[in-house]
Amino acid sequence: MIYSTLNSNYSFVDKLKSVDYFLILLVLIIGAISVFSIYSTESGDFSFYTKNHLIRLIAFFSLFLALSFVRVSTWYRHAYIFYLFGLLLLLLVIFFGISASGSKRWINLFVFNLQPSELMKIAVIVCFARYYHRIQSVDIESYKYLLQPIILLLIPCYLVITQPDLGTAILIAGSGIAIIWLAGLNIKYFIYSGLLLLVSLPFIISVLKPYQKSRILTFFNPERDPLGAGYQIIQSKIAIGSGGMHGKGFLQGTQSYLEFLPEKHTDFIFTLFSEEFGFIGSILLIFLYALMIYRIIKIGFSCRSFFAKLYCFGFSTALFLYVFVNIAMVVGLLPIVGAPLPIMSYGGSSMLSIMIGLSIVMSCKIYSREIISN
Amino acid sequence: MIKRNNNLDKNKTINRRLFILGTAKVGLLGLITSRLYNLQISEKKKYELLSDKNRFREWKTPPKRGVITDFYNNVIADNKRVYQVHLSLDETKDFNNSIFKLKNIINLSDDELSKIYEKKQKIKPWDTIVVSENLSWEKFSKLNLYLHEIEGAKPVLSTSRYYPYSNDLVHIVGYVGDASPDDIIKNEKIEKNFVPGLKVGKIGIENSTDQILIGNYGIKRYEVNSSGKKIREISYKKETQGENLRTTIDIEAQKLAQKLLENKAGSICAMDIYSGEIIAMASSPTYDPNKFTYGINKKDWNEIKNNKLRPLVNKSIAGLYSPGSTIKPLVALAALEYGIINPNLKIKCKGHDHPYELYGQKYHCWKKNGHGIMSLRNAIKQSCDIYFYEVARLLGVDRLAIIAKRYGLGSKVLENIFSEEKKGLVPSTKWKKQVLEQSWYLGETVITGIGQGYIQTTPLQLCLMTAQLANGGFKIKPNIIYNSNFNYEEILSKIESEKNKPSKANILKDKNINFYEKLYKNPKNIKIVLDAMYGSTNEQFGTSFRSRHVDKKYRYAGKTGTSQVRRITDKDRELDLDTSEIEYKNRDHALFVAFAPYDKPKYAISVLVEHGGSGSKAAAPLANKLIKKIIDRDKDREIIRKEIKII
To answer: Rounded distance, CA B70 to CA B634, Å?
Structure first.
């Protein structure tokens, strides 16, 4: 009963007290680094990209702070609606979406172009957290409860793949699977599906778009087409490698300054950062992300409700996935699939989804004592 | 309870699962870290190199050519400032549009336009194309006005070869043009310094001294972006100008020689008889080398190529002519040296009615009425053919060949400077057997004695022959490029002191003689010949008497020659036509060789006028004028010589 009173009556001071200021600090530091990096992509010119990025950062950071005070139970209650809303937006893309460089991913919101697949990354986590919150651990393995989340995951993934956007689809699927894993599904299912994936790999490859196939082939041997598909990865490796221990210095990255680096403000922002700040800078940035992930996990531990816990752990894993996939991609450990680096990369939707995701984490922290009944 | 258990259960599971995930995350972060370490620390050098390769691009800049001067420091091949327009292909989005605009502003012809498109095919997409190599100031300033409208166009101040004395020196200096693939293969210096836009010598001194004249190219290192656009200059190693070159030519003498040959086909050569320095070497007709610098147009080229007087042939070194009577001093010398005749040998020339006969073949003197009784001196002076038929017969062609070769006939005078230089031909019995596979006839010896038949010489060879007689019979090394190692005074005093001494060596054998060594056996014989040449010019009945100088300062000695271009028939002899009445191509070549001043010889000269008629009428008067000029300039020449030595 004590809990229930606490449930309903959080004083404002209490709330402020329980805010995780360290997490906010981390977001601000990475945010600041991102602004300087985008500034550097414009050769030290405070113009279009830097301005936009700064405005978005301020706007979405404010949104993050504001949404942090939304009760975690509210997120719980509206989890499916959030998911359906995301799905609806993905469907809208099919009909009203705007295309750029061969793919249809965005909806024009006048202020900026929203990429619903980015929102879906968070929606899936919230939805799954709710889903597994109410299921008894004994039921998890029943076919009914096994099939439902798979369907919930397949629908958005299919919609995103057909845009086409393999990178985001993989990240959505990855976060979903991470939550299923955390919820406690028997390991054998993961082993089986892993084997199944391996077996069906030839089939998957056959349905891939030619450019996707070429990217994967190029990943294994970038030199097969140094001016075409292999160009990005070769130039990215040159930029990072030539950065050395200390980097070439702020605004001194020749690879990006001389436009050898493709998509330097979005997917390859880490390359630019790494070229200018070297091994030390890169490790520091990765450490900041690791710290953020650690902090989110810590919050998860402090949460009383399973929903909040599952969400925090799930989101931290997703965040790790985003960071890992992006960096592994630009250093040549993974094929180029198109995945932004959270907060650092230029792009409103990615920033928005990360900030919403973080605000739910913060909400979990502020309302950590809340118990959510089934 | 169930619920509570369930929650505990779920929490236990999630913690365990999170731990496994966490471990995986740490592992993956480790993977990324090691990858970064690998890229940024272990392989830093490799990627740094690749990055530099990306960002730096080098452009070579053509070196300036060395300047060529005459002996008196007058520049005869210069570098002129020119206005050009270049088009950077990397900064030109629409090539056709830019060219079209340029065409309208600087009036490019269709011919030039097609050349530009041709060039574009051959160069790299970030290279620069030279649209116009030589714009007038008006067009250049007009272009600057419209420059902002033409993408990639760049006004450029450059230098190009310029020949201030255009027509007067083309056969000597030659001209430059774009390096052909052949030029690059043949010449190492060109290969090493090849830059698009490099001009190389095509003929003449420009060609043979490319090694000296071409400097080293410069390197401009630029930082470029991914599309090859130049961002900024990183370094500039300046190109170096090639070395300057001094020739032995006197431009004033050369100009006069060229003028004397105006509207004629022929050659005039003049040489210092001690240093072998060529003072003038004119060939006519001539043409303008400046037309070749930017590639000659078709019309001009056809005009030069189709000219019947063959301006492209450097007649001084590549024109082969029978020496005619100019060889008589040499025939006389040979006969004296071998002791075949003595100077007092008398032979009677009885005119056309009683020609010289040998095995039924008749040989006529040029003089219809005959010269009467001739001694050696008179025979040279009046150029009696009958006398030399007999001398030649007594001498024999092989002995004549030894002496003729010794004095410079039958081999190249300047060796490597002019690729087109010809050797000529000094016939001998051996030569005929080997080359024509026939036996020698005595009749052929007879006509060789008056410089007809197989014998072929270049005007420069005749000049050298005269020089080597005039200096007292010493072998000299002809040169057209100034040799700073040559010690004039030393050589002069050596020759002066040796002049009157007979040669100790067995000089009459066919053997090589070193430079500045005696070519003769007995100095008296040389004096006899030179004295006879004096008579030929300065005494009445001498063949060049009418062209003499009275003033002792300019007084010279010479020998005329008239070489037949075809066999003279009895009918011709009957008609006895004046030169002007004969068809041009059948007229005789007029020749003249001389040395001056007679009292203290210093210069030798040879004149040849193709189809000019007789040597005394067509060739000797030209020598008269040039000799005066050269002697007038002699004082200055010696002043300059001293100045050069001090430097």
So the answer is: 14
Q: Is residue A371 part of a domain?
A: no
Taking the Cβ of residue A282 and every Cβ of chain B, the question of whether any pair is shorter than 8 Å is answered with: yes
Q: How far is CA B43 from CA A256, B37, B465, in A?
A: 20, 9, 74
CB contact under 8 A, B18 and A244: no
**B542 vs B98: CA distance, rounded Å:** 72
Q: For the whole model, what pTM was predicted?
A: 0.70
Q: CB distance A242–B50 less than 8 Å?
A: yes
The overall longest dimension of chain A from CA atoms, in Å, is: 68
Task: Please tell me which of the candidates A136, A260, A313 has its beta carbon nearest to residue B54.
Answer: A260
Contact predicate B628/B337, CB 8 Å: no
* Domain-embedded: residue A373: no
| Averaged pLDDT for residues A85-94 | 94
State the architecture of B58-246 in CATH terms: Alpha-Beta Complex (3.90)
The predicted-structure confidence for B150-186, as pLDDT tens digits, reads as follows 877 888 778 889 999 989 999 999 999 888 888 888 8
The DSSP annotation for B147-200 comes to GGGSTTEEEEEEEEEE-TTGGGSHHHH--EEEPPHHHHHH-HHHHHT--TT-EE
- Which residue did the predictor score with more confidence, B243 or B5? B243
Residues of B with CB under 8 A from a CB of A: 6-7, 9-11, 13-14, 17-18, 21-22, 25, 28-29, 31-33, 35-37, 39-41, 43-44, 46-48, 50-51, 54-55, 223-227, 231
Nearest to A159 by CA among A169, A147, A167: A169
CA distance linking residue B225 with residue A260, whole number of Å: 7
Which tokens hold the place of A229? 């598909």
Nearest CA in chain A to B21: A317
Outline where DSSP puts E strands in A224-281.
none
How many CB pairs below 8 A link A and B?
A: 125
Question: What is the count of structural domains for chain A?
Answer: 1
Is residue A270, in this structure, part of any structural domain at all? yes
d(CA B250, CA B630): 8
Contact A244 B48 (CB under 8 A): yes
pLDDT tens for each residue of B173-182: 999 988 888 8
HSE, side-chain direction, 13 A CA sphere, residue B565: 18
Q: Where are the domains of chain B?
A: 58-246, 251-287+311-646
CA angle A312/A314/A317 to nearest 5° reads 105
pLDDT attached to residue A214: 75
Q: Is A279 on the interface with B (CB under 8 A)?
A: yes
CATH topology of domain B251-287+311-646: Beta-lactamase (3.40.710)
Identical fold for domains B58-246 and B251-287+311-646, yes or no, is: no
User: What pLDDT is stored for residue A61 in this prediction?
Assistant: 96
**Residue ranges making up the domain that contains A335:** 2-366
Tell me the pLDDT tens digit for each residue of B443-471.
999 999 999 999 999 999 999 999 999 99
If 0-12 CB within 10 Å is exposed, 13-18 middle and 19+ buried, where does residue A180 land?
buried
- Residue A370 · residue A304 · CB < 8 Å: yes
Average pLDDT over residues B60-88: 89
Per CB-CB distance under 8 Å, the chain A contacts of B225 are 258-260
How far is B198 from chain A, CA to nearest CA, in Å? Answer: 31
Quote the CA–CA distance of A238 and B51 in Å, as a whole number.
6
Q: What is the pLDDT of residue B572?
A: 81
Locus of tokens 């689809």: A169
Q: Which 8-state DSSP code applies to residue B91?
A: G
Tell me if A197 is assigned to some domain. Answer: yes
Q: Are B589 and B608 in contact (CB under 8 A)?
A: yes
